[in-house]
Structure formats: C-alpha cells, structure tokens
C-alpha cells in the first residue's frame, strides 16, 4: 500500500508541472530541415468557439479537423520537444496550420491518400494537444506508410479524474465505432490504443461484432499498449469479438506503476497491461484467441511509471522485419521483446526452459 501511495504522489507531482495548453496549436510556421506531419483528427470532445483546439466537454457528435505539425531538425526520436517560451520551430514542435472540416471533406481527404490509415486512441489523463503532438511524433519517428488519424475522446487531462475518464470512454464507444467504420471503408486500418483507450477500443470491437459489422473487423489490425483492462473483462470481450483475421498485439510490462495504481483502485484485480507472460495459461489463451502478447519491459520508458514504453516500441515495430523472431511479425502467443537485435523470444527460451508446442 505504501508503494502505491508513493507512486500516486509522484504522479500528482509530475502532473503539477507545465503541460501544453491550446496555445501549442497556434500557427507558428516551420524552418528548413524540419519534418512536416499532417494529422487528421476525429473527436468527441467539445469545441469552444474561437478556440484552436478541443476541450474536455463531452460532445454529442463527432468533430473533424486537420493539423500540420512541424518537427524540429534536432528532434530526438521518442521525444516531444514542447515549446518553452515563444514558439521556435528550429527547437520545438510547432503547429504550421490547422482547420476544422466537415465529415464529407474529412472523408474526401482520407480517400485522396493512397495509403492505409493508422488510428491512435490515446489513454487516461491526456489533453487534446498532447494527443495531436504524440501522434505526429510517432508518425514521424516510425516512418510508417500510413495516414495518421487521431480519435480523441474527452479525457479530463487530470490525474485526479480517473473515474471521470472511465465514464468518458464509456460514452465514446458509439463515436469510435463510427470512426473505425468510416476510416476502414476503403482500406486496411491499423489501430493503436493506449491505456484506458485500449478498454474503449475493445468495447468498440465488441460492439461492432454484436451489430454485425464483421467486414469492418476484418480490415482492422489492432495493437493495445499498456491496456488498462481487467484480465477477466478482456477474456469476456474476446469471447464476443472472437478470433480476428489479423493477430491482435498486446504490449505489457509487469512493472508498469500506473497500472499498479489502477489495479489497487479496482480492488487489486490484475490489469491486462501488467500480465506475467511466463504463466503457460497466458500462452495458451493467447494462441487460442489469435493474440500476440509482448512483454516490452526491456524498452526504456519515457516516464518514470513505465507506462509509455509503447512509444519507443511502436517505432521499432514499424521498421521490424519478417523473418523468424522479427519484431514486425504478428504471431499468436506470448513473447519477450529483446532490445538487442529487436527480436521476440518466448519467455521460456528467455528463462532457459523448454516447453512443448509451437511458440
């Protein structure tokens, strides 16, 4: 209990630091050598008239927008160089342009792109501008050949608002189902969902199955990062969703401190994102459900809680190869990610044990 209290205190103290406000979305230009990334946005957040972005109000319908983000020449992969003082595109992430769109224009913009879509569903305690810049960073660093699409649900953007955020994702299932149906209408869509956003995504996939949207599910490739989902709830969701044609990837870290707090709040129930994959039952369940569970504890985290390792792993995964053990191969089962060589191994190989079956 003392450990959890200490972690919670550190999270609160971290949250007291400066966080980007709507001013980060003010157009500031770019410089030679910067990389430009256009992020297409769908959101169920409210919008203040005259504001550059979206707030944490719960809107009754989706809004659409596009933001072109400039990434500075000296950018360090995995990082977001936030503005400190006046906007300086030579040193910081800046917004080059932004505009709101109607649905028809949004769909036309996507249709004009001859690429698959990559949808990012952010997690708990995330404001709008943080979500936009994080997706721009991941798109730039991964080099993935896909159109970056953000679905931003109305997170309160506060450590103290865990229950409020849980309610917010519950109200967002219909909106995300609408987005995934639209984005995948003409193309394959990758879906990366983090933390509480993973719970929202699983609930949405379940809803798509129950409403007979099988064709939509068949065009999705889903990855859950540090999913804040009760393990039994995940099993129940999978029972309804059933096996998807594309192997689902689940990134876990048993030492994720943020999920330790979530577990405590939930009565010490194990969270999916903190699974111990050395349990043979985990392997069997993963294979049966066509799920690849990857322990990414060896990846350096951007935060002290170990909750954002997916940012670095996503870059590695995007450039992964196709050979045996390659990080880019989606194969059902439980694996440990090895930072040396960027490869996957079974946990039993890692600890020197041999088990029967295919791994």
From TrEMBL:
**Pfam families per the UniProt record, alphabetical:** DUF900
Lineage of the organism: Bacteria, Pseudomonadati, Pseudomonadota, Alphaproteobacteria, Hyphomicrobiales
Keyword check for Signal, yes or no: yes
UniProt keywords, alphabetically: Signal
According to UniProt, the name of this protein is: Esterase/lipase superfamily enzyme
Q: List the signal peptide residues.
A: 1-20
Does the keyword section mention Cytoplasm?
A: no
